[in-house]
Amino acid sequence: MTFADEVKKAVTPRAALLVIGVLALQLLFIGSYIGALHAPKPTDVPFGVVAPQQMSAQLVTELKNLPGGPLDPRTISDAATAREQVLNRDIDGALIVSPAGSTDTVLVASGGGAALASSLTAIMEKVGLTQRRTVRSIDVAPASDQDFDGLSSFYLVVGWCVGGYLCASILAISAGSRPANLERALIRTGVMALYSIAGGIGGAIIIGPILGALPGSIWALSGLGALVVFAVGMITLALQALTGIVGIGLAVLIIVIAGNPSAGGAFPLPMLPDFWRAIGPALPPGAGTWVARSIAYFKGNAVTGPLLVLSAWAVVGTALTLLLAMRRRQDDAEATRTETVPGNSAPT
Asked: pLDDT per residue over 116-132, tens digit each?
């Protein structure tokens, strides 16, 4: 047997294609993470300005024209409204100009991302220096002392996502498992639901009572976790049912390669490049991270949109999984009827 024959036996054409696919995923992983995170800078950050009427418009214009366009400023009537909008996550910070003294106040929320809060404070300090004013920072939604840089919520969601696609992958391709007919698809969906509940509760207990890394309602975090795990798991099952083992790679592409660097974890969304900033809120890691931070630090505000995103992934994944299983059953039934028609049976 020649060496070429040994190569063909060792690496089949199907294996070669899968290896090429893995190489593509590897390069996409490197490109996505480095592309998203290598040079973070704030861009068009929603930012409030509270200032005396005679200087408000001019100050907003000056902030809007800062080099690099870090801020998207808008006038706000008073300090209480500015604080409320930060807590509602309508804006990421606000400058409150003192009408009498020379010390102004910048409101930030490190619970939404310490890197962004620090950047906003630094920008306002530079602006103050040019106008011979000083700036003090007030953190209206501070991250926990046990939540360094506000990253715990992101890592929690990443763990839930990993559990979701790994569980689904095991259900789909474990030894002895067969392509899903409707009955198997329903059983796997049920198993995925039970696993999601366990994973959601377990993650919330670990990050809350055990480690004390994240404040907020344990039950709210548990519910979020169950939804994240189920959404990721069901979309993985759907992709596997649609494309076979390639579907697992597609799930990794969506969740890990595209979803994690665009989730706003290490750096909040306003600090990411446009592409990742655009896709992040539509993917499970980004939607989950936003809701986890809202539960922990923002009184559960501004969660409707991200929860709808997660629910859509869960519904689409479940519907595709079951529909593809029903189609398979219909195809199998049609094949059986064809084989039983006289004259169509295979020769013995």
From this structure: 999 999 999 999 888 88
